[in-house]
Amino acid sequence: MAPQYRQRRVGSALLQALVAALRGKGVDTIRLSVSPENAPARALYRNYGFTVIATEPGYFGEGQDRLIMILRI
Hints:
The chain is α+β, with helices and mostly antiparallel strands. The protein has one domain (3-72): Aminopeptidase (3-Layer(aba) Sandwich). The protein is 34% helix and 26% strand. A three-stranded antiparallel β-sheet has the order 1-3-2, with helices on one face. InterPro entries: Acyl_CoA_acyltransferase (IPR016181), GNAT_dom (IPR000182), YpeA/RimI_acetyltransf (IPR050680). Keywords: Acyltransferase, Transferase.
């Protein structure tokens, strides 16, 4: 999310719409990846109920890991 849109709940609204659309299509689990350094995104996902299920070291390059998160809907 671009900095000028943070704290306006735009990300929350988009995530809520995505979850509703996927639920309507019969999807029961959402899986995503995020950089551990992306604190705003991690907080958004965690507040929505996503949990970290794995870490992939070096995924984005040397010393740049990624977190795998899931949400059962």
